[in-house]
Amino acid sequence: MMPTGDRPPRGSSPEDSAHSGNTEITVGQESQDVHGITEKTGDAFQPEEIEYLYLTFETPLPTPAGISSPPQPGQSPPPECPDLKPYTSPFLWSSTHKTVITWISCAVTALAAYSAGEYAPATPVLSPWWNVSPVVCDLGITIFCIGFAIAPMVLAPFSEINGRRPMFISSGILFTVCLIGCGATNSFAGMLVARFFQGVGGSTFSTMVGGVISDIYHAEDRNTPMALFSGAALFGTGLGPMLSSIIVQHTTWRWIYYSHAIASGVSVAVIFVLFNETRGSVLLSRKARVLNKYYEKLEEAGYYGVLMPAGESAEKQRVQRIRWKVKSDEERASLATMIGISCYRPFHLLFTEPVVFFFSLWVAFSWAVLYLQFGSIPLVFQSNHGFNTEQSGAAFTAMCVGAILATFLSIYQEKVALRFGKLSSTPEGRLYFSCIESIMMPAGLFWFGWTSFPSIPWIVPCLAIACATMGIFSIYLAVFNYLADTYHRYASSALAAQSCCRNLLGGVFPLVTNALFNNLGYPAASSLLGGIGALLTLVPWVLVFYGPKIRARSKFASELLNQH
What we know:
Elements: E1 23-26, H1 34-41, E2 50-54, H2 95-118, H3 123-130, H4 134-137, H5 139-162, H6 164-184, H7 188-207, H8 209-216, H9 223-250, H10 254-274, H11 280-300, E3 306-310, E4 313-325, H12 327-331, H13 335-352, H14 354-384, H15 389-394, H16 397-419, H17 432-437, H18 440-450, H19 459-487, H20 491-520, H21 522-536, H22 538-553, H23 555-563
Helix pairs in contact: 2-7, 2-8, 2-9, 2-10, 5-6, 5-7, 5-13, 5-20, 6-7, 6-10, 9-16, 9-19, 13-14, 13-20, 14-19, 14-20, 14-21, 14-22, 16-19, 18-19, 18-21, 19-20, 20-21
């Protein structure tokens, strides 16, 4: 039996109500119950009109009329009530369930991030084989980043309509197929095509995870899962060249992609079995469809209507045919319109909102520094310390360690922030820690450049890599949290803008790494990058002091502020 509500479901509109087909009964009066009415008419009572009501996760579901009594003439046994547990609000899931979803999401994020750096260690082998220069060969990284940057603009609306799970599965299949294609190709052109679509598939694994976390955690509970997500992105970025260098050293470069394809295939299988849909509006739409089908089966069996309160008296009820609808389905624009907005609004925010522009510039430069290390680390360690491919790849362990340390530090900081309301009650409160920690990126760059000499032990520049990675982590997390807190329903567009800038600039930097470091020298090149990074650390300081004034002048942010 379905639960009975004490009041009409929320969202019912007066214009939708039609009482001409209702029958009013009194609770507790046997002579006037539903079946008493049925006996008088000789037929199952059939309210004429259907009332359409809005369904939410909090809506109490009324009891179908007559199902608790023996079937009357013209009625069959009532169909079994559907199981509605799969359509529970994701916010109400158990902590164990949320943890499983979070860890799966972080694992596939690391898997996607692994893709960017896995390409670089094979360049010395592939460049002479394809008869192209190392710079041209590195286009495989750039093309991947272009697919990674552009695809979410088009694919994001599909997750709004169809949900996260179908997008994860379809993108995972594309990602796996393209990995096999990268490993099997014999031509440079084939590699570029496969790498582009690998970026398209991997982009969903990475960019949609922030949405998954927002689907299942309230804002005040998101810091830890967001820190894990950010840490997974940086950890995977370092893991790619580290493991690929070992593979290139001991076997064929093709196994870089075949081994990755095996891991990706296993991940898709895990997603298929364990990953549940997290988008609330999609679950609510599915719940409405299931309930409406149930009501249709009831009517086919001769049970018409549900018991609804009649007037203000809780003792009186009426029999009414109803169907459920979901407000988000009605408010959703067409797919073409949604794709248009998804492609237009991020760039509109980028060029009209100073906060989005400077944060995008800040995080894009930090990401470019991260990707630049695919070329700079092997260059420095092989030329100055005599490392082979495997040994220079092992230096990327520092990046992985830095990501892990930064993740745990961020989780601990949240506990500190909760003790001081000012550190968490405003968007600017998200920036206090990053104002200090972001300095680690330029500091690590200066440190790396001026300790890259052969006379200095190799462990010293490795520590610099870990330091810079921790700074990049703090920038990435601060940008994500601040834009999400400031732009609310426009947050996905603001984040898409920074993601596009981040990946495009990150894809360009590997092409200039060798020229930059060889022409300027290792210390000067790192110092140039460190100086730019140090200048950009002013961004969070400006917002800490002037953030409220800047947000007040923002068309989008002030509009949202006035609504609250």
